[in-house]
């Protein structure tokens, strides 16, 4: 049974279509990145999955159940972008209260709140109120709240926004650790961070959601080398590349840069390329195998 299935899912606000009709099936597994520019529709998509807003068309099933089904309760956790904590209650009280709403008994709810707070390294701060904690710690409380009841699917909207590098690393580590048993969908503007965590990527722009195929998937048996030269010699190199047996094609964004595609089965291509450069007396600044996720997404759009 699929983790998530959206069929013809769309959302309009008046005349404005924030999410265009979307068909999507996701299976349980490694964390999934949700990437897109401001206003692309990420929060709208999350809000639909959490049943905070009603779809204009289509349906969503989580673990085979419609999202308004009671049996979903406790199987979907979320950290909304603008989530707030109650200043009047300490953090273990707040999370126990939420656990009780999920059906935990009073004692079990306190235990569960303590468990998730310990998971995010706040075991020593259980009786603190939000205003006694730093911004990063509060974000970890909200993250802990999304883990109550060990849900199979956890949606995190900007989990590290406004958080310092230490707290961000801690959140990333917990996601990695928990990914053995839970599937995360994480939205963020920090593509480099998501690239470290997520093997699967959803890209949304102007309400159009699509699954991005990783470079390895989309290029099949093609591999890519990015070459940065010390001087304007990209054309000179390009003219010589046909000498390398596995060479397929090359393109250049500027006179010092080349993207070279070659047959991935030739695993000594980079060494042969370096030998060719040395032979021609051409100096290079950087040679990088493969493209970053940001470069891949950018290349798809252009
Ligand atoms: N309640 C609403 N009423 C009208 N328009 C809305 C509403 N909620 C969102 N929108 C519009 O839908 C579009 C998508 O918004 P959404 O918040 O989903 O984007 P986002 O990708 O999460 O953006 P950001 O990265 O800035 O958080 C935007 O143009 C936004 O103005």
UniProtKB/TrEMBL annotation:
The identity of this protein, by name, is: ABC-2 type transport system ATP-binding protein
**Gene3D superfamilies for this protein:** P-loop containing nucleotide triphosphate hydrolases
Q: Decide whether keyword Signal is in the record.
A: no
Keyword terms, alphabetized: ATP-binding, Nucleotide-binding, Transport
Question: rRNA processing: is it a keyword of this entry?
Answer: no
- The scientific name of the source species is Pseudoteredinibacter isoporae
PANTHER family referenced in this protein's UniProt entry, alphabetically: ABC TRANSPORTER ATP-BINDING PROTEIN ALBC-RELATED
Pfam families assigned: ABC_tran (PF00005)
């Amino acid at each position: 049974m699929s983790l998530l299935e959206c069929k013809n899912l769309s959302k309009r606000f008046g005349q404005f279509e924030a999410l265009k009709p979307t068909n999507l099936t996701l299976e349980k597994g490694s964390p999934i990145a949700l990437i897109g520019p401001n206003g692309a529709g990420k929060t709208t998509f999350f809000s639909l999955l959490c049943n905070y807003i009603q779809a204009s068309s289509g349906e969503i099933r989580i673990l085979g159940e419609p999202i308004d089904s009671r049996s979903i309760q406790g199987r979907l956790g979320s950290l909304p972008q603008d989530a707030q904590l109650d200043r009047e209650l300490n953090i273990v009280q707040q999370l126990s209260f939420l656990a009780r709403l999920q059906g935990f008994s009073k004692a079990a709810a306190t235990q569960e709140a303590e468990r998730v707070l310990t998971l995010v390294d706040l075991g020593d701060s259980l009786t603190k109120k939000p205003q006694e904690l730093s911004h990063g710690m509060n974000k970890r409380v909200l993250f802990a709240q999304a883990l109550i009841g060990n849900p199979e699917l956890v949606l995190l909207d900007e989990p590290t926004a406004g958080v310092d590098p230490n707290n961000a690393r801690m959140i990333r580590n917990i996601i990695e650790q928990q990914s053995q048993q839970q599937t995360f969908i994480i939205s963020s503007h920090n593509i480099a961070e998501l690239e470290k965590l997520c093997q699967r990527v959803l890209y949304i722009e102007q309400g159009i959601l699509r699954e991005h195929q990783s470079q390895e998937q989309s290029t099949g048996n093609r591999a890519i080398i990015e070459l940065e030269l010390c001087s304007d010699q990209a054309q000179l190199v390009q003219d010589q590349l046909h000498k390398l047996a596995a060479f397929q094609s090359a393109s250049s964004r500027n006179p010092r840069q080349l993207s070279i595609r070659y047959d991935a089965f030739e695993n000594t291509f980079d060494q042969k390329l370096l030998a060719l450069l040395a032979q021609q007396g051409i100096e290079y600044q950087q040679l990088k195998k493969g493209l970053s996720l940001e470069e891949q997404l950018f290349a798809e759009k252009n």
